[in-house]
Amino acid sequence: MTSKEILESLLESSETQGPFSLQNLLEMTRKEALFGIAKSADRRQAWYILFSEGEPNGAILHDDKGCLFGNKAVYLLKGNEQFTFYPVNPAVIERIILGCRVFDRNLFDRGKARDIPEMKKVGETGAGIFAMKLVKEGKPLPGRRISIRKDNQVIANDFTSSEGKVSFRLLYGRYECVVHEKDLSTKTYEFEFDAGLLKQVVTLDIT
């Protein structure tokens, strides 16, 4: 059986609680010191977070490209997922966590507003839309998190589409574009946004 099949077999025989937002899920499990698995799924991806004594000690992400375990799975959470919690036998949970342990549980708190120095969103006074396409060796890179920074502050975050595209409403000025890699590393590129980039799609090749 695959890891996903094993997890699903455990969920089939368990009662459910939820749905919960990620932060509400963490608060609930910690308060009650629960053992179990929380699942969030859409058409493309399925996250499984494994809890022991209320702590999110394991994580698995399954999608059409394969699976990620531990910190790498947590890093790709967007923060707006809805989770259903399934109580599971503690001994079973502890065995599964051995193969997908989360070593940095602080990653779960990235979605809290206080953890990201977001500036006020640019409204109708913005100069326009900055659009870009992320590629590697000429091939689009979908599902990559992109951050836009100005004066060392993050002013926008989004994920590239299936075509590797992403866009942001910006004022004219100089910015940094931060590409978050799946191995948790980042690459930073400086750019100047002005009228010449309006109605254009800038291609960024990170080869």
Walkthrough of the structure:
The structure is a single chain. The protein is of the alpha+beta class and 207 residues long. The chain has two domains: 3-115, no CATH class; 128-205, Immunoglobulin-like. Helix content is 16%, strand content 43%. It contains four helices and 14 strands. The protein has helices spanning 3-12, 22-32, 71-75, 90-97, and strands at 17-21, 36-41, 45-52, 55-63, 66-69, 82-87, 128-136, 139-140, 145-150, 153-159, 165-170, 173-180, 186-193, 201-205. The strands form three sheets. The chain has a six-stranded antiparallel beta sheet with strand order 1-6-2-3-4-5, with helices on both faces. Strand 12 and strand 13 (186-193) form a beta hairpin. The relative contact order is 0.14. Mean pLDDT is 84; it is low at 111-125.
- Approximate helicity band: 10-25%
Query: How do the strands line up in the largest sheet?
Result: 1-6-2-3-4-5
Total of DSSP H or I helical runs spanning 4+ residues = 4
Ends: how far apart?
Answer: 36 Å
Largest sheet: 6 strands, antiparallel
Write the H/E string, N to C: HEHEEEEHEHEEEEEEEE
**Integer tally of domains:** 2
Shape type: elongated
Share in β-strands:
35-45%
* Oligomer category: single chain
- State mean pLDDT (0 to 100 scale): 84
Number of strands: 14
Radius of gyration: 19 Å
Structural class: alpha+beta
Low-confidence stretches: 111-125
